[in-house]
User: Fold this.
Amino acid sequence: MKDIIVVTGASSGMGKEFVLQISKKEKADEIWVIARRKDRLEALSDLVNVKIVPVEIDLSNGENITAYRDKLLEEKPNIKILANCSGYGKFGHYETLSTETQINMVDLNCKAIMYMTDYSLPYMREGSKIMNIASCAAFQPIPYINVYAATKAFVLSYSRALNAELKYRKIHVLAVCPYWTKTEFFDRAVDKTAKTVVIKYDVMYDATKVVKKAIKDLYNDKKDMSV
Assistant:
């Protein structure tokens, strides 16, 4: 049985950075990298010394995630780490954002994590770990990033409770709750043709440092981490 690490949102941002860093810390036969952009996933093979297995899936559609479930069923690996790093936000007044956009945030930020976790758990053993990217926005309602903040509150609550429920299996769950972090997130979140609703970023953290601390806390069995 091969040991694997599974990372969603691996084509960019903290997902990609997690692949780069975890490949140096955790021994695994393969890292399954999941995102929509297959070319970016394939490019990771040149950056790490672990076999990269690209899995091209649009995680915002639950029906697509069954491809991951089927791949697990076929290969029956041992999942050492599941890192749910996919997600996105859209800034704007609630009434100006389309219903489709709002629902899509829920699908990707909340439902996809549940699908990935539920499909992965049968292949996890004692000592396995789950890392979910939440946000400091999870701790309070925030106007103009209303739904995004609400989805991250779900991720935080879900992760904390899941950590307690999985203690009997000695599987640890960490919710990562960073402040603003410099990634491609903002390319999609900010509508440059509209009036800016977030006018000041007090701090913009480096993704490399955020992921480094997240991995440290993951191995120290913390239940949530923020910077």
